[in-house]
């Protein structure tokens, strides 16, 4: 507390010079002057606990300074949405912002009061009864006429007080979307404002108040409703998020009481605003309109009072998928919503098959796509994307679930996107649905980071729209391509063109329209150049097979010959001899995505293993009852968790320290993920027996992908050598530092 006026003014002036602070002064709530020292006290405690509030800097009780007591807090940069419909954002982001708010509320209610030092902050137990009495008194004091619905709602609330009214936590008292500051670009809360109604009481009162927009009647003109707004999560979805974050069961039989109480409270406030307008001292310009909203609000409260808004246990299982690293919540329009470190990211597979298919637990949709390729095994149609995938693409793009891998487009970090990559790895074609498939992702990153404006216009923009496909040509059939200096494909300057001669293979992608190559200069430097696939001299030699399969579902892998192909000099990326520099920028995120997709693939394989082990019987008992199978299950789970955490650590390093510093961690995950995926899929195949080798299950296809991952983007042995070299360097550096 500041006691010296001169020191206080100096502090305020310093804050104003930095333009980082703002002041809070005494406010009037429900006709009472609310001292700001309570706000200062609670914000100081929350800030110390790491909860997102502006940092309170100083408090002054001397009213002579500016005419009232006040406190100064740090400015929080971000977005404030005054309209709860969140106009101007996509449906997917709207969902994410609301769910993020629900999680923030759960975080508030999970903080121990003793830890905050706020045990005596409020009156504690009996909060619900006090709230009903307080707002009933407030309403009756300002009522200008009888409103039976208000009296009925007040009576119902008093007769249906929760049995657990002794549950106590810190309560915000006015938790709604416009009292939150969101990050300028990310979907996370950076600050919660307006703590003048905060106290200690029942936490579900805040949740009920937050859920009110889902019930607001359209006839209340002074309050915006959610009618016709897409991407607004359902009550059950928000309850699922809140309860999961608090670690409590999602069945809340008394939540209808708290929602009804919130409507009663809001109706009483509206009545008070209208009463002040009659006296001529209301601050709201439309205060006279609030009188029309009191009865409709009360009627909605009565309607809510008579129904349950909780989740049953079966609904919980249907709508909540949990893993050790993240939560996935089923929503009406978004198939899965992912959360990490307060940032929400999304993935979707919404379609007519949703009732029978989830990426994590079912292969129905996969089987439909696989059947398509089997049906067209000897037809050119095999190289055409199945209609069902094209339909999903249209829906994903319309929902804004497009190009999520590219931070500049999605606003997601590599750590954020890692969770999406894991889930899409559970289904072989899922990345393609969201335009997040390799090698297009890496090629788009290259063009985004290093391409000229013309290259971006001609190539990047169509790739981002999903209009064209690309391939990446690096590996050559006649040399050991694990050592890039062996490459023989030549590039010669000829006026304002380059001439490319050589042969490449394993150019992943469908009927490619863009080709990335690493040509060689005579001085041993490498370059990267764009080659339209319809150029004269570009010849598709053959589609390659992986374990005998042409891998059409991934677009196949081609061997391509470049016979004196002339391309404009403007097609070279960044400049001559910059190929390795570009490659290092490309391969970090690409390897990360591969590894997280491998984690998702392994999760599916383990799930199939467990299902088979629980159903099949051999030698008088279920397969899982055999110790060797039980040990396989345990070891697979351990390996998956280890790889996931290692990969997320690499993603964090990539985000915070850059590609160069994260090289060792990326190399480690590249080795670990491929080995882990091979092991898990192999165990699953073994448990399935002969069926695991057949096309009846996706395991054979999954194994070919997992095994090829140990060669793609560099074989394990190259990465192991790099890891050893970097580890020795780091150890020697530490040893020198200790001397």
TrEMBL record:
InterPro entries: ACAD10_11_N, Acyl-CoA_dehydrogenase, Acyl-CoA_Oxase/DH_mid-dom, Acyl-CoA_Oxase/DH_mid-dom_sf, AcylCo_DH-like_C, AcylCo_DH/oxidase_C, AcylCoA_DH/ox_N, AcylCoA_DH/ox_N_sf
Pathway per the UniProt entry: Lipid metabolism; fatty acid beta-oxidation
Function: Acyl-CoA dehydrogenase, that exhibits maximal activity towards saturated C22-CoA. Probably participates in beta-oxydation and energy production but could also play a role in the metabolism of specific fatty acids to control fatty acids composition of cellular lipids in brain.
Taxonomic source organism: Denticeps clupeoides
Tree of life domain: Eukaryota
Domain (Acyl-CoA dehydrogenase/oxidase C-terminal) ranges: 577-724
The name this protein goes by in its record: Acyl-CoA dehydrogenase family member 11
Domain Aminoglycoside phosphotransferase, chain residue ranges per copy: 36-219
MF annotations from Gene Ontology: acyl-CoA dehydrogenase activity; flavin adenine dinucleotide binding
């Amino acid at each position: 507390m500041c006691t010296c006026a001169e020191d206080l003014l100096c502090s305020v002036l310093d804050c104003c010079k930095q333009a980082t602070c703002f002041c809070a002064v005494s406010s009037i709530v429900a006709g009472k002057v609310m001292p700001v020292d309570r706000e200062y006290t609670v914000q100081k405690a929350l800030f110390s606990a790491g909860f997102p509030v502006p940092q309170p800097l100083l408090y002054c009780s001397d009213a002579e300074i500016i005419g009232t007591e006040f406190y100064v807090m740090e400015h929080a940069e971000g977005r404030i949405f005054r309209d709860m419909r969140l106009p101007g954002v996509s449906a997917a982001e709207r969902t994410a912002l609301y769910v993020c708010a629900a999680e923030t509320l759960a975080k508030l209610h999970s903080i121990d009061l003793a830890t905050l030092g706020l045990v005596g902050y409020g009156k504690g137990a009996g909060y619900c009864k006090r709230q009903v009495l307080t707002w009933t008194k407030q309403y009756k004091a300002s009522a200008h006429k009888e409103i039976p619905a208000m009296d009925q709602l007040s009576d119902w609330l008093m007769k249906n007080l929760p049995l657990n009214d002794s549950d106590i936590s810190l309560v915000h008292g006015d938790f709604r979307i416009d009292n939150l500051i969101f990050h300028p670009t990310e979907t996370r809360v950076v600050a919660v404002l307006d703590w003048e109604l905060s106290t200690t009481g029942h936490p579900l009162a805040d949740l009920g108040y937050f859920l009110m927009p889902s019930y607001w009647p359209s006839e209340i003109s002074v309050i915006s409703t959610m009618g016709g707004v897409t991407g607004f999560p359902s009550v059950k979805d928000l309850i699922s998020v809140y309860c999961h974050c608090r670690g409590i069961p999602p069945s809340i039989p008394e939540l209808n009481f708290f929602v009804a109480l919130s409507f009663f409270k809001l109706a009483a406030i509206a009545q008070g605003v209208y009463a002040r307008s009659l006296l001529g001292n209301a601050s709201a310009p439309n205060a006279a309109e609030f009188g029309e909203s009191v009865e409709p609000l009360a009627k909605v409260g009565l309607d809510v009072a008579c129904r349950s808004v909780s989740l049953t246990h079966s609904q919980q299982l249907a709508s909540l998928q949990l893993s050790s690293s993240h939560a996935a919540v089923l929503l009406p329009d978004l198939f899965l919503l992912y959360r990490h470190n307060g940032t929400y990211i999304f993935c979707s597979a919404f379609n007519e098959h949703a009732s029978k298919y989830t990426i994590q637990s079912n292969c129905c949709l996969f089987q439909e796509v696989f059947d398509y390729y089997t049906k067209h095994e000897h037809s050119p149609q095999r190289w055409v994307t199945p209609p069902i995938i094209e339909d999903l693409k249209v829906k994903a793009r319309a929902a804004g679930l497009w190009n999520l891998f590219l931070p500049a487009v999605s606003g997601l970090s590599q750590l954020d996107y890692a969770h999406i990559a894991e889930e899409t790895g559970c289904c072989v074609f899922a990345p393609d649905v969201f335009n997040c498939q390799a090698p297009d992702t890496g090629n788009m990153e290259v063009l985004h980071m290093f391409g000229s404006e013309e290259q971006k216009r001609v190539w990047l923009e169509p790739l981002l729209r999903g209009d064209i496909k690309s391939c990446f040509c690096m590996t050559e059939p006649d040399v050991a391509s694990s050592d890039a200096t062996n490459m023989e494909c030549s590039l010669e300057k000829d006026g304002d063109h380059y001439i490319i001669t050589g042969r490449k293979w394993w150019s992943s992608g469908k009927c490619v329209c863009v080709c990335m190559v690493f040509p060689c200069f005579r001085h041993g430097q490498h370059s990267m150049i764009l080659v339209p696939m319809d150029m004269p001299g570009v010849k598709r030699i053959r589609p390659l097979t992986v374990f005998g399969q042409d891998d059409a579902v991934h677009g196949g892998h081609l061997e391509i010959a470049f016979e004196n192909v002339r391309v404009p000099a403007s097609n070279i990326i960044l400049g001559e001899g910059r190929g390795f520099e570009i490659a290092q920028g490309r391969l970090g995120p690409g390897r990360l995505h591969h590894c997280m997709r491998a984690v998702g693939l392994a999760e599916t394989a383990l799930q199939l293993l467990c299902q088979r082990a629980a159903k099949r019987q051999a030698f008088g008992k279920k397969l899982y009852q055999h110790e060797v199978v039980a040990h396989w299950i345990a070891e697979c789970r351990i390996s998956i968790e280890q790889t996931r955490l290692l990969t997320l650590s690499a993603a964090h390093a990539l985000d915070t320290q850059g590609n160069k510093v994260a090289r060792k961690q990326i190399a480690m995950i590249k080795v670990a993920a491929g080995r882990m995926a091979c092991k898990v899929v192999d165990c699953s195949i073994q448990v399935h027996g002969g069926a695991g080798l057949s096309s009846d299950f996706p395991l054979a296809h999954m194994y070919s992908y997992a095994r090829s991952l140990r060669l793609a983007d560099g074989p394990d042995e190259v990465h192991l050598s790099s890891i050893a070299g970097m580890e020795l360097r780091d150890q020697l550096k530490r040893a020198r530092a200790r001397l």
